[in-house]
């Protein structure tokens, strides 16, 4: 198998895993977390970058799977530069994201 094929298959698996993780997050947090961890492991092993929306589901500090509204709190900043503040409820790490107007 060539590298492109491996990457394609890995990307598909990651997508399925994230999908499952999101589905299980309310009923079975442990299972959800293990799906997400597996997705992260695959991405690291194959060295592919997850799509933006998926990367946002992992805390930058503790690397845990955090779902907005469940494990993380999202607040809109009131500064001139539009930004959102994301608080990870697992490790309490707060980070900021600048929203770029298009
Ligand atoms: Zn965290």
Characterise this structure.
It contains three helices and three strands; from the N terminus they run αααβββ. It is of the alpha+beta class and 102 residues long. It folds into two domains: 1-58, Immunoglobulin FC, subunit C (Single alpha-helices involved in coiled-coils or other helix-helix interfaces, Up-down Bundle); 59-102, no CATH class. Strand 2 (83-88) and strand 3 form a beta hairpin. Helix 1 runs antiparallel to helix 2. The radius of gyration is 15 Å and the shape is globular. Zinc ion (ZN) binds at residues 59, 61-62, 64, 88, 90-91, 93.
The largest pleated sheet is described as: 3 strands, antiparallel
Order of helices and strands: HHHEEE
Which structural class do the helices and strands define? alpha+beta
- Per DSSP E runs of 2 or more residues, the count of β-strands stands at 3
From the alpha-carbon coordinates, what is the Rg to the nearest angstrom?
15 Å
- Look at the structure and give the mean pLDDT: 90
| CATH homologous superfamily heading of the largest domain | Immunoglobulin FC, subunit C
Q: What is the CATH topology classification name of the largest domain?
A: Single alpha-helices involved in coiled-coils or other helix-helix interfaces
Poorly predicted ranges? none
Strand content: 15-25%
Overall number of structural domains: 2
Q: Can you identify the CATH class of the largest domain?
A: Mainly Alpha
Q: How does CATH name the architecture of the largest domain?
A: Up-down Bundle
Which hetero compounds are present in the coordinates?
A: zinc ion
Order of strands across the main sheet: 1-2-3
The proportion of residues forming helix, as a percent range, comes to: 40-55%
**Overall form:** globular
Figure out the total of helices: 3
**Between the first and last Cα atoms, what is the distance in angstroms?**
40 Å
